[in-house]
Write a structure and sequence with these properties.
With 110 residues, the chain is mainly alpha-helical. The chain has helices spanning 3-31, 40-61, 65-81, 85-98, 101-106. The protein has one domain. The longest helix is centred in the first third of the chain and has 29 residues, at 3-31.
């Protein structure tokens, strides 16, 4: 394994961990609807984004090209729909990780 491949694997693993934590948080928010009132829009958004982030984690770990594309889509949607400065910084950081040449090459992107 070349150093670029090792770097790509580590960066993808980092992105998967962060996205997994974000997905778990969103799904916990959706699950909390059983114990407290949650607006329908918030419930829907948290479920859809949480499941999408879970799919992204699966796709990235399996080196699927659609995982890279879906990751960008989900990160943009997360930053735009939910908002917040910290969330925006995390999403921008993950996008920068996905655009690293070694990571793009891993997923067959130019």
């Amino acid at each position: 394994m070349t150093p670029d491949e090792e770097l790509a694997d580590r960066l993808v693993q980092l992105a998967v961990v962060v996205l997994g934590i974000k997905a778990a948080g969103l799904l916990l928010l959706a699950g909390s609807a059983a114990f407290r009132p949650v607006p329908a829009r918030a419930l829907t958004v948290s479920l859809v984004l949480g499941v999408a982030m879970g799919l992204v984690c699966f796709g990235l770990l399996r080196k699927r090209r659609w995982g890279w594309t879906l990751a960008l889509t989900v990160l943009i949607a997360d930053a735009v729909i939910i908002g917040g400065l910290l969330r925006l910084l995390i999403d921008v950081g993950l996008v920068l990780v996905l655009f690293q040449p070694a990571v793009r090459h891993r997923f067959g992107m130019r």
